[in-house]
Every structure is written in structure tokens, then in C-alpha cells.
Write a structure and sequence with these properties.
Layout: H1 18-21, E1 28-29, H2 41-53, H3 63-77, E2 86-89, H4 92-103, E3 109-114, H5 119-125, E4 130-135, E5 137-138, H6 140-148, H7 159-165, E6 166-167, H8 170-177, E7 182-188, H9 200-212, E8 216-220, H10 241-245, E9 247-251, H11 254-257, E10 265-268, H12 272-284, H13 294-304, H14 306-327, E11 334-335, E12 343-347, H15 355-366, E13 368-369, E14 371-372, E15 383-387, H16 392-405
Parallel strand pairs: 1-13, 3-4, 3-7, 7-8, 8-9
Antiparallel strand pairs: 2-10, 5-6, 9-10, 11-12, 12-15, 14-15
Bound molecules: pyridoxal-5'-phosphate.
Residues 33, 91-93, 117, 188, 192, 220, 222, 252, 254, 260, 265 line the site of pyridoxal-5'-phosphate.
Length: 406
């Protein structure tokens, strides 16, 4: 039973929604990472109160903004951040782009572990740097063996198999890090789109290699509150003094609470020298000042949104089981077992079409829009990404349509 109504089918068309009003006319836009659920009641109340006040001048960052981040990370992620570490930013992507501009010169290398969130590419290329893709190691054989030996795909749940299918290629990573032109690693934790929660050991190793080669780590942790029920992510900066010292962590309530349009995020930078640089970068780029809604929604989300978030995670997990069961009927479509995010990553290589071709075909023939894996880097070829953060009825209708074509 749910206290909050995630089943509500709100019509988002005509609201200027990127997901719904720029979706190739698909009736079922299961693409960009934005949820079809109304925001949690305390967030809406905070907004109503702010609107009712009626005056929308310039804003400061009040103490309770810092407190809301600090207590959330302490309570939910067992990590004590300090007030001084935190700097407001209008979004995670603005923070990433600003960081790239500040810490690199055109022609430098920035490393990403692909397939990964497509906008990382833009932030690197738009600032004149080279994208250095270090593909994650993909153990398709493990997935095949495991699937062959079991009756239903729901048996793929064990942490072990989930964590072995996509892993970091540390040898290749070190080669790229050791290039003098390599200045920055943009890391995604948990990882969009493969859904991995990186372990403390993996994070420690990433930190050691980057420190050895004097490479800064920007850890994008925007998906950290969207882990499967019972699964916890590990903050990069929490695992060692080294990781703490070389990292910039980008965090926000926007992904988990579905308030991306509010443009509110933070960077956490324990190292003072690095923090001064990034503070300067965010201010020079004019992305360090909040609009009138950015602060109240953040405080409401972190201080009062937890019961809603816990239910949301359960609802999304149930949606995930539905897709899992559905896909187990199609041997040519392999769902990658995941532990986090509402984005499912599906290996469609056996279909004999590229991800782009398959995505276009499905939009045309079913009205269901899934994102082509090629968007996330070369190693995403032949995959599709599916956003399942929508009312169950909409998801089931979309699956029904897919069933007709598949
Ligand atoms: C990994 C990742 N980082 C950042 C963003 C967007 O962040 P923001 O809206 O704060 O710029 C997304 C959105 O999908 C994402 O998946």
C-alpha cells in the first residue's frame, strides 16, 4: 500500500516539458531522466508558501540550506560533510562544465568511463578538451551463462552477478591517466546508464590511481538517492583521505525528488585549494546564485521528503520487476541487472539492429521512445536505455505495445 499516489496519470503535454514536448511525437516517452510523478507534498507546500509571499528578489544561501545537505548525507549516507565544503550551484551540469573550464586548458584530456551520461561528452568537447573514453569491462558471457542456468531473469538479483557484469578497466584507466595531458576524471556514482553502485574498494582504487597521476576526480552523485530499496551507495569522498583530497562531488535533490526544473545543486569540496578554484569558477560563470525557489525546495526535500522518497524507491523497484519479467520472455533482449537509478540498460545486440535503428523503429511502430545506447559512447552501441519512472499503467501500456512489435 502506498500513501502517495504514484499511479496518478498527470498529462504533461503542453507544459513545456522537455520529456513530453520534445519527444519525436512519441506517446510513451520513456527517455530523458525525468519522472512522471508529482513532487512530494512538502516540496509543493514550500513552493506555494514562497509564491504566496509574492516578492522574488535576489537570494542568499541561508544556513539551513547547508544544514539540510549535511544532515541528509549524515543520516542517509553515513557521511559527515562540513559546511565549508559546500558551494551552491544552479545544476550538476553547470558545475561539471565550469570545473572542466577551470581545471583544464584546451587540448587537455578528460576521462570518462563509458557508456556514461551523454552530457559529459558535451561538457568536455565544448571546452576544447579531448574525450578519453575508458570503456567499462562488459561481461556479456557472465550474463549469458547466468541466464542459461536459471528459469527466470529475476534470479539475477545477487549482488555478485550484478557487480561483475560491468566493472572498471583499471589497466586501461591507468594508461590514460598517466598521459601528461590528462587533468580530470568525470566519474558517475551510481553509474548512469548501467546502474552500478561502485564499491568502496573500487572507489578507493580510482582515487589512488588518480592521485598517483595528479588527476582531479569530479564525482557526479546526482543519482545517489535512487538506489534499490535496501541498497546503499558509497560517497566517493568517504572512502579514503586520498579520495577526499582530490575530489569535487556534485550532489542535488533534483533527480531523486523530480525537481530538475528548479535548478538547484551543490558541490562538496573538502580540499581548500581545490574549493577556492571551483568557487571562483562557479562565480565567474555566474552559476553560483539561486533563483527564489532553488533553496526552499532543497530544504523541504531533504528535511521532509524522506517518507515520499522511500515509497518512490519501492514503486520504481516494482516497475523494474515488471520490466524484468516482461523481458525474460525475449531471449534477444538482455536486461542488465542493476542496483540503482530508474534507468534500465538493455542489451539488444542480438536483434541485429543498432540501438539507433531499434529506437527509431520502436518510436515509429509503437510510439514508445527509448534512448539509443550510442548516445552514451561507443560501448553503448546496440543497447537501449529505458526510463521506468512513470505510473504503472503507462509502463504496462508501453510494454503491451512493445510486445506487439517484438
Ligand atoms: C549523471 C547525471 N548528471 C547530471 C544530470 C543533470 O544534472 P542537472 O540537471 O543538475 O544539470 C543528469 C540528468 O539526467 C545525470 O543523469
Amino acid at each position: 500500500m502506498y500513501k502517495y499516489n504514484f499511479d496518478k496519470m498527470t498529462d504533461r503535454k503542453g507544459t513545456g516539458s522537455y520529456k513530453w514536448d520534445d519527444c519525436k511525437n512519441a506517446a510513451y516517452p520513456l527517455w530523458v531522466a525525468d519522472m512522471d510523478f508529482e513532487a512530494a507534498p512538502p516540496i509543493r507546500k514550500a513552493l506555494e508558501d514562497r509564491v504566496a509571499h509574492g516578492i522574488f528578489g535576489y537570494n542568499i544561501i541561508p544556513d539551513n540550506w547547508y544544514d539540510s545537505y549535511i544532515s541528509w548525507w549524515d543520516r542517509r549516507h553515513n557521511f559527515k560533510m562540513e559546511k565549508d565544503w559546500l558551494v551552491f550551484c544552479t545544476g550538476v551540469v553547470p558545475a561539471i562544465s565550469s570545473t572542466v573550464r577551470k581545471l583544464t586548458e584546451p587540448g587537455d584530456n578528460v576521462v570518462i568511463l563509458t557508456p556514461v551520461y551523454n552530457i559529459f561528452f558535451n561538457s568536455i568537447i565544448n571546452n576544447g578538451c579531448n574525450v578519453c573514453e575508458v570503456p567499462l569491462i562488459y561481461r556479456r558471457d557472465l550474463l549469458d551463462n547466468h541466464t542459461a542456468g536459471v528459469e527466470t531473469s529475476s534470479n539475477l538479483d545477487s549482488d555478485c552477478i550484478t557487480r561483475d557484469i560491468y566493472t572498471i578497466d583499471f589497466d586501461n584507466m591507468e594508461k590514460v591517466l598517466s598521459d601528461d595531458k590528462t587533468k580530470l576524471l568525470i566519474f558517475c556514482n551510481p553509474h548512469n546508464p548501467v546502474g552500478r553502485i561502485w564499491s568502496a574498494d573500487e572507489l578507493r582504487k580510482v582515487g589512488e590511481l588518480c592521485a598517483k597521476h595528479n588527476v582531479t576526480v569530479l564525482s557526479d552523485e546526482i543519482h545517489c538517492d535512487l538506489t534499490d530499496p535496501g541498497k546503499e551507495y558509497v560517497p566517493f569522498a568517504s572512502v579514503s583521505e586520498t579520495c577526499k583530497n582530490i575530489s569535487i562531488t556534485a550532489i542535488a535533490p533534483t533527480k531523486a525528488f523530480n525537481i530538475a526544473g528548479m535548478q538547484t545543486a551543490a558541490v562538496s569540496i573538502p580540499n581548500l585549494d581545490l574549493r577556492k578554484k571551483i568557487w571562483r569558477a562557479l562565480n565567474t560563470d555566474e552559476v553560483a546564485e539561486p533563483n527564489s525557489f532553488a533553496i526552499p525546495v532543497t530544504i523541504a526535500a531533504f528535511n521532509e521528503g524522506e517518507p515520499w522518497l522511500l515509497e518512490l524507491r519501492r514503486y520504481i523497484f516494482e516497475n523494474k520487476q515488471i520490466v524484468k519479467d516482461f523481458l525474460s520472455g525475449y531471449p534477444k533482449l538482455k536486461l542488465i541487472p542493476s542496483e540503482a537509478t530508474y534507468l534500465l540498460w538493455i542489451d539488444c545486440n542480438d536483434m541485429g539492429l543498432s540501438g539507433e535503428e531499434l529506437s527509431e523503429k520502436l518510436i515509429k511502430e509503437t510510439g514508445v521512445y527509448l534512448t539509443a545506447g550510442e548516445e552514451y559512447g561507443k560501448s553503448g552501441a546496440g543497447f537501449l536505455r529505458m526510463n521506468i519512472a512513470c505510473p504503472r499503467k503507462r509502463l504496462e501500456e508501453a510494454l503491451e505495445l512493445l510486445n506487439k512489435v517484438l
